[in-house]
Amino acid sequence: MTHTNTNWILAFFGTLLALELVTGSENNEYMKREHSLVRPFQGVGVILPHWDFLGNTMVTSNYIRLTPDLQSKSGALWNYSPIMGRNWEVHVGFKVHGKGNELFGDGFAIWYTKDRMQTGPVFGSKDHFSGLAIILDTYSNHNGPHNHQHPYLSAMVNNGTWSYDHDRDGTHTQLAGCEVRFRNVDYDTFISIRYENDVLSVSTDLENRNEWKNCFVVNNVELPTGYYFGMSATTGDLSDNHDIHSFKFFDIDTNISHDEILQRSNIIPNAKTFEAPREHKDDPKPGMSNAKIFFILLFVVLVTAGVAIFAISYFKDRNARKRFY
Ligand SMILES: [Ca+2]
């Protein structure tokens, strides 16, 4: 490489860096590359810097597919490094799509938790987690008395003792939620999660309008520093492609001391208000299929016929014997 070339390259990267600093300082917000994912995802020789993935997750240059549109799949994607900021905002670009028009599932979750890379029953990740879950639930299990439609977007804060399940729609422990529509559209859909001074605000951009629409704002949410971001999804009997197109992390801390960041790492995740717990309802027992009913009836008919034949021949026999005497 000639000297001029090197200079050109240095100048180019210098300009890029300067541009990034300028855009960043304008909003006082910095996208942190070590916590972000931007296209194209496959570099030369390096697949997905800063992130791990597991299960059925598949990486292409344009999207990361947490699950394909097939039954009983599960996948996750986790950032390597803990978040050392008190206030932040993340923007996640995603696409949930599949062949099912009426029946599809189960949805995906965005995590800010103490443990990473742990598989489990909550949209592919562990239950009794510590931290925050933002859940985009596409399948309504709807066993208890909740009256929202699906897909449903909700938040849950857990200190490690609570269980998600809750009729499988999380309505026992949610902080707040809103109904959303994001399946099978031909543009990217986005969610924004902002956590600033213990206020959690979630908004969406699902109509290709390039503007945020408020879903909910919850006060008094305490989350420690030092947790990890992740995303996970599952399919069961019903399925969907759960694709991630981008994950952008913005540090929005202003004038926060190193000591304060360190102190924040010791707090236990906690939210002052969440919906009142109610009694758990199990999934309904699977109904009897027509085939099962047919075989039961057939069995009853055969047994009745057998008993009848036996009775007739028995009485015939007795009558025959009677005549004999
Ligand atoms: Ca559900």
UniProtKB/TrEMBL annotation:
It comes from the Eukaryota. It comes from Drosophila virilis (Fruit fly). Coiled coil: none annotated. InterPro entries: ConA-like_dom_sf (IPR013320), Intracellular_Lectin-GPT (IPR051136), Lectin_leg (IPR005052), VIP36_lectin (IPR035664). GO terms for cellular component: COPII-coated ER to Golgi transport vesicle; endoplasmic reticulum membrane; endoplasmic reticulum-Golgi intermediate compartment; Golgi membrane. Gene3D superfamilies: 2.60.120.200. Its main location: membrane. GO terms for molecular function: D-mannose binding; metal ion binding. This is L-type lectin-like domain-containing protein. Residues 29-252 form the L-type lectin-like domain. The gene is Dvir\GJ14528. Keywords: Disulfide bond, Glycoprotein, Golgi apparatus, Lectin, Membrane, Metal-binding, Signal, Transmembrane, Transmembrane helix. Residues 1-24 form the signal peptide. CDD domains: lectin_VIP36_VIPL. SUPFAM superfamilies: Concanavalin A-like lectins/glucanases. It is found in: Endomembrane system; Golgi apparatus membrane. GO terms for biological process: endoplasmic reticulum to Golgi vesicle-mediated transport. The chain crosses the membrane at residues 293-315. It is a single-pass type I membrane protein; Single-pass membrane protein. Pfam families: Lectin_leg-like.
